[in-house]
Amino acid sequence: KGAIAISHVSDDELNQHQCWRGMAVATEEKAGYLSMSPEEAKTLIDIIHAEKPLVVCYQSKPVLQLALSAGVNPDFRYFDLAQAHFIINPEQRHDLDTICEEFTGQK
User: Fold this and answer.
1) CA-CA distance, 99 to 105, in Å (whole number)?
2) Is beta strand 54-57 parallel, antiparallel or unpaired with respect to 3-10?
3) 46-51 long-range contacts, CB within 8 A, separation 24+
4) Partners of 6 in the beta sheet?
5) DSSP label of 76
6) What is the pLDDT of residue 76?
């Protein structure tokens, strides 16, 4: 199966799940934006659960919490950029700006 990339739009610097305004979702074929109503959240998680793609995301905990709140046991595979960066470089900050700058050299 393919991969799906998930990112979020947040109203605060700490990217707290309670402040998420929505999620951007992309596959090899399509991209879209979800406002994260409970219905959209459940539909997204149901699709991920059924298709079992590799979910690539930054900060997976809210995605996993979203699955649980939708009543779905999150047994899909995922790769979390923040967790991976912590393993590679635990002394650095693990925000997306720092990760991108470290690996691309761009600010």
Assistant:
1) 10
2) parallel
3) 46/70, 46/72, 48/4, 48/76, 49/74, 49/75, 49/76, 51/1
4) 25, 57
5) S
6) 82
pTM for this predicted structure = 0.71
Edge-first strand listing for the sheet containing 54-57: 31-34, 20-26, 3-10, 54-57, 78-80
Q: How far is CA 59 from CA 1, 29, in A?
A: 22, 23
Q: What is the pLDDT along the chain (107 residues), one digit of tens a residue?
A: 688 888 877 766 555 555 667 788 888 888 988 887 777 877 888 888 888 888 888 877 777 777 777 777 778 888 988 889 899 989 988 877 888 888 888 77
- The DSSP symbol for 105 reads -
Annotate 4-66 with DSSP letters as a single string: EEEEEEESSTT--GGGEEEEEEE-SS-EEEE---HHHHHHHHHHHHHH-PEEEES-HHHHHHH
Question: In the block, which residue shows the tokens 């995301």?
Answer: 57
Token pair 């402040």: residue = 19
